[in-house]
Predict the structure.
Amino acid sequence: MDKNRGDILIIHGPNLNLLGKREPHIYGSLTLVEINERLINHARRLKLELDIMQTNHEGVIIDAIQQAESQFACIIINAGAFTHYSLAIRDALAAVSIPAIEVHLSNIHKRDEFRHKSVIAPVVAGQICGFGADSYILALDAAARLVRQKEQA
């Protein structure tokens, strides 16, 4: 990786700070801290660096995406409920030249009808959902491939 850039920015959106106690039958029993520890350990094995953030605020997510272009090679984002209606986050992802991967712990397509539509899906490299905390690990593997492909190009 370019030493002047971090490798991957991980953005956890609204309510993900409540993981472990928020509807564990849907989202699992792992806390966000435990998921982040798994991600950091997996990133070490992949020889990648992560910057991880969580916010409940749409504007903070947009600012992070806009700033990521000069700092990171890829974004992994779980936009939470913003996935389904935030055109501002969608537009921010479309405006930057680095790839992003959309992640969800649950399978959004098997849940409430309003969760089936992702407004950010059309502007990301791919979407991974339904594998619990492993959704993030799968996204990290995919991000590593995207980063390495870009380095070789």
Q: What stands out?
A: The CA atoms of residues 63 and 132 lie 27 Å apart.
